[in-house]
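pasting for the record
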Amino acid sequence: MDLVDDHKRELQKSNSSTKLLYEFKIEEDGMSTRQDNFSPDIFINADKIRVNQVLDNLLTNAIKFTEEGTVSISITFKKGKNQMDRIIARVRDTGTGIHPEILPRLFSKFVTRSNMGTGLGLFISKNIVEAHGGKIWGENNADGQGATFVISLPAKGTNQ
């Protein structure tokens, strides 16, 4: 995935101690199989540039709020019943987490605790995801370290 490679290069250039991990899985009937590469048989009816924009925003935010630790992105193709397949993208970090003051307004305009940025990234991301028939949400990790953002988009496997 070019986007992940770009972020890995940026982290290396900045000599950051943050690590970026990537994983792709196929899930069917509750069973998960890890894949080394994207399957060419899975399609999302979406604007690739806009979906990349959302993933780029989530990765950029995760890296920005993780001075030291791990940022991971996992993509799962989830086979559903009645041909209701989904692509689930999770961006998880071990950073500062989502401040309790921000959490209820997370996807609203101009909401940020960062000194850099306008607070529009998640608002725009939500609009892009919903325009594609998907959902996006974010939450603090149960272990108290960092946050996870999830995108769920409709998909279609060709082997159905």
